[in-house]
Design goal:
The structure is a homodimer. The first copy, chain A, is globular, with a radius of gyration of 22 Å. The longest helix of chain A is centred in the C-terminal third of the chain and has 20 residues. The first copy, chain A, has 17 helices and 11 strands. The relative contact order of chain A is 0.12. In chain A, helix 2 packs antiparallel against helix 3. A 7-stranded mixed sheet of chain A has the order 7-6-5-8-9-11-10, with helices on both faces. With about 400 residues, the first copy, chain A, is an alpha/beta fold. In chain A, about 50% of the residues lie in helices and about 20% in strands. At the A-B interface, helix 13 and strand 10 of A face helix 13 and strand 10 of B.
Amino acid sequence: MERLLRSTLAGLVSRGSLEVHTASGARFAVGDGTGTPVAIRFTDANAQWAFLLDPELRFGELFMDSRLCVEQGSLYELVCLLMINAGQAPDNPWLDVVDRLRFSLRRWKQRNDRRRSQRNVAHHYDLDAALYALFLDQDRQYSCAYFEHPEQDLEAAQLAKKRHITAKLHLEPGQRVLDIGCGWGGLALYLADVAQAGRVLGITLSEEQIKIALKRARQRGLDERVEFRLADYRELSERFDRIVSVGMFEHVGLPHYDAYFSHCRRLLKDDGVMLLHTIGVSGPPAHADPWIDKYIFPGGYVPALSEILPAIERAGLVVTDVEVLRQHYAKTLRAWRERFMARRDEAVALRDERFCRMWEFFLAFCEAAFRHETLVVFQIQLAVRNDSLPLTRAYIAQRETVLRFVEPGQIP
Amino acid sequence: MERLLRSTLAGLVSRGSLEVHTASGARFAVGDGTGTPVAIRFTDANAQWAFLLDPELRFGELFMDSRLCVEQGSLYELVCLLMINAGQAPDNPWLDVVDRLRFSLRRWKQRNDRRRSQRNVAHHYDLDAALYALFLDQDRQYSCAYFEHPEQDLEAAQLAKKRHITAKLHLEPGQRVLDIGCGWGGLALYLADVAQAGRVLGITLSEEQIKIALKRARQRGLDERVEFRLADYRELSERFDRIVSVGMFEHVGLPHYDAYFSHCRRLLKDDGVMLLHTIGVSGPPAHADPWIDKYIFPGGYVPALSEILPAIERAGLVVTDVEVLRQHYAKTLRAWRERFMARRDEAVALRDERFCRMWEFFLAFCEAAFRHETLVVFQIQLAVRNDSLPLTRAYIAQRETVLRFVEPGQIP
């Protein structure tokens, strides 16, 4: 069996240096000996079998259970080593079968009706708010930040994200805005407070998020103009001048794209504008990562642009701009992981050791995927009409300048 | 038969005011009586039959032959009237059949191999250069201009287009650039002269264009650094740092998108960047307009973004930015038509009356489609790697500022 482990790992790792300590105490090296040396150890033979049968799922799981230990180098370096080699691995008929099966199951796994959506959301976002406070910025922006320059810190980059998105909404004074997937309310409050939106409705399916969002609105005296509601986007029937949706589309699921965009179309007034901010893949469509699907975002899906656009076109919405944020999420995830690791003891006290290993794996794995794999963030601006936005994109930078000027008065 | 004409036109025109004078001298009005009144006259009964059987093709054809005359209002107003009503017409089973047939033929009509591509290009671009000089800007930019503000004139907006595209190429000094579909050479010369590209290769299949491009390079003393070659993109094997392709992709044809992008990928170095500028539709995929296909751009096709992206993803290219230019081409076409009509006598002398009616129809029809229909221009920026461009799009405006400063030295 250890020969099979060796040949499988040699197939998966052709570049870099990976030393493997097997459960029986044997050692072997795979890769071409370049780069940072990384060593791993399997604690038992069953762990090795589990890894062989389904590395994509078991790799993270064995790390969580401390049955696959990083003996030299860091978890992040290990994950990067595997990512850099991904796509270059020679054919492995068994892994191909697992892969194809996952691909064919993806529509089934993403049948996110209202009940299932709420359950999926609760799985991740109803975790203790204190946990998120350990690693997010002060405003609890739990999506990709926008780094205006490479050295910008997380707090500033998250503020810049809200500013950038707001500028793209091309708000007119007094307009009504809908925020689909409002999280803990940061963006909705910014829209009302800094950008002077008329009224903002933020919706989420997370009960924990809504409690905090409501409290923050009251504390900032914005509860007259900002409403937060525990609701599914499919339940709304009001109409809005602007719709914004940040980091929520990942939970919609492929089979629901037509429903999502046609519903957004119905909610938008005829001169309406929408800004969709979502993780995507720059390569061809893929299946959802099985470990992420099981432990982090059940029912989620990261689409290629080619999978999003047909539904937009069928809904009668016009794509007016697509910005592709590359590397920004890698930088965001790095900052989150550093903050999380610095306060890991508090996280263990809140949850337990296995949870923290899961969280560390989640943040390291995603950072590596954004840095070395095809993960990106799409900011897709949509309109109903062809002529409801200015001729050029210059207004975006101009509005950012104005917002930057107004912001100092904002209470974090 | 005139009753059939009346019911068909009433189906096609529900908004606006259209008065129809039939060949027999009868008159009727269709529409809701709003807007600018327009009147048309059919000169003979056969013209009416032709229109009934295939309005999409025959409408323009009958106008060219002076068998459908505009008696009140302008051709442009007539075309707009029909466009505004398009998509709202009730079902007409016969027109549905014609439509579906065209849709199924579209792949066959676009089998643009090297020989056919050259013939298609010759059909339009090998027309007398003096004709194009009548209505294009001084630099002969025969693609959508970029209006930095609504009142900018054509000359300035075409210069702004070259500047905008060049900025998006993120050129480093001395880099090699390929211009696929170089036209009369204006952009390639700008890249070498203003943007200081190392070497530029411009390719076209039009013999008339290449002659003029070569002459211009010599006249401006740029023939050492700018090469123009009569070549198909599929024939090249050199590698380039940058590729630009403006208004050429419309001639590639749907069945060749995979070949186009995978060939571009092969021609690009690993830190390469490409800028594709093409007409597209913002709605779902459609068939090519039959009149445009027959008289203006045989073998051409205007794709939806959802039709372009799968081929990009399969080719291993990363979409790094998509700008959607709305209304810019309507403004460009308006300027071209005004210039053309002001020098129509010269155009008749160069060609003949029927040709000029065709040209007028072409420019008016396209303007109306960009203004009222779903036509837009996509500027799709592509890269091989995820990290070969700056974090934000700010460099585009910064480079434009620098280019604007250097431009005054440019010889038009």
